Amino acid sequence: MENPSREEIGRILKRSKRIAVIGLSDNPARTSYSVSQAMQASGYDIIPVNPTIESALGVKAVSSLKDIEGPVDIVNVFRRSEFLPDIAREFDEIDSPVFWSQLGVMNEEAYSFLKGKGYTVIMDRCIKVEHALTR
Question: For site-directed labelling of 40, which of 2, 26, 47, 61 has its Cα 20 to 30 A away?
Fold first, then answer.
């Protein structure tokens, strides 16, 4: 698995506006919450994708990617690595060019599937850290 260069990641973050966050928790103590909160504070529209919560960060949650209306610039995943192949297949059914999984989250099957379809794939990187490093 090979991620885009830091320069390319910076370009992706600069042109992106809407981030769907799979596994976003409504618990402020969770990493998904604090990372998404920081991205929201930096001007990104955050869409919580979690069937177990009503809302997070003041935004109504959706149960799945397919429930999102309109295009999504980045799908950011806070789920365990073994869930990535199923998430990748769902991602392939929506309008989004970038699949991003957080630090420690990676899966070769999902990576190969998505790269084979021509998507930009970033795995095992924290979007908040990359945003800070590429501003």
Answer: 2
d(CA 87, CA 75): 10
**DSSP-assigned letter for residue 48:** E
pTM over 0.85: yes
Distance CA(56)–CA(36), nearest Å, equals 9
Beta-carbon neighbour count of residue 36 at 10 Å?
Answer: 27
Average pLDDT over residues 10-18: 98
Residue pair 36/24 in contact (Cβ under 8 Å)? The answer is yes
C-alpha–C-alpha distance, residues 103 and 126, integer Å:
5
Q: How far lies 122's CA from each of 74, 90, 116, in Å?
A: 10, 17, 14
